[in-house]
Amino acid sequence: MPSALFIVSEEGYWGEECIEPLTTLSEAGVDTTVSTPSGAPPVIDERSIDPEEVGSETADHIRSVHETDERLNDPTPIAAVDADAYDAVVIPGGHGTVWDINHDHHARRALATTVAGPTGKAMVICHAVGILAFTRTEPGEWLAAGRNVTGFPNEWEDGIVDDHDRLPDGRKIPYWVEDEVTAVGGNWNAQLDADTSVAVDGDLISARGPESSAAAAQTLLAELGIEIESDS
């Protein structure tokens, strides 16, 4: 049975970006493990379960899984996890990742190890794409350098933060994902005219945001060689 490690933020993950891939992979038979920096349950961004923000059906579903899924309620500390033991590493986004996951050296090591390995696949979503700007390969090169990536674009960030880069909850974001990834040589294309945006470059998959979560999950399954059953 293929396996996947989810590394989820304790500072605020975006519901759909975690729950959609988590449930999709589980339903496809992938054995999934959830980890967080300290081993405490991940915290969900309240905006991602606000019916006015995402719709009542999505909000109810995401909240239900967040509150009842045993993996999310009893995660493993990142430091206690061996990324080599998994076929895939998945890092959901959400603004919270800019404070914890993207700077966590165990998370960065898991990502670099997976991308460098012979068979592993890694997927980063939305703000979690920012981890590429702080992760180096074994020779010391930036992992993002020369890679085609997508992620949360500056144009969208500009519509959320105020003139002092503060989020609606008052927290100031320390950096913008697009700026950091392009600064280390990433080939950035968020495909703003498209409904979804998923990029595959070698063993690295990146996705733009919540609306791309489903497509990203399906892409990862395909990259893992897992056949997706058709409804027809």
Description:
The protein has 232 residues and is α/β, with parallel strands linked by helices. The chain has a single domain, classed as Rossmann fold (3-Layer(aba) Sandwich). It has eight helices and nine strands. It has helices at residues 15-27, 51-54, 56-68, 70-73, 105-116, 154-158, 177-183, 213-223; strands at 3-7, 31-36, 76-77, 88-91, 121-125, 148-149, 187-188, 198-201, 204-207. The strands form two sheets. Strands 3-2-1-4-5-9-8 form a seven-stranded mixed β-sheet, with helices on both faces. The chain is globular and about 45 Å long. The mean pLDDT is 95.
H/E series? EHEHHHEEHEEHHEEEH
Question: Got a strand count?
Answer: 9
Number of helices: 8
State the domain count. Answer: 1
CATH architecture: 3-Layer(aba) Sandwich
Shape: globular
Query: What low-confidence regions span 5 or more consecutive residues with pLDDT below 50?
Result: none
Nearest-angstrom radius of gyration? 16 Å
Largest sheet report: 7 strands, mixed
Instruction: Kindly report how far apart the N and C termini lie.
Output: 25 Å
Strand content: 5-15%
Helix content: 25-40%
The CATH topology turns out to be Rossmann fold
In CATH's first tier, which class applies? Alpha Beta
SSE-based structural type? alpha/beta
Summarize model confidence as the mean pLDDT.
95
Strands of the widest sheet, in order across it, are 3-2-1-4-5-9-8
Determine the CATH superfamily.
Answer: Class I glutamine amidotransferase (GATase) domain
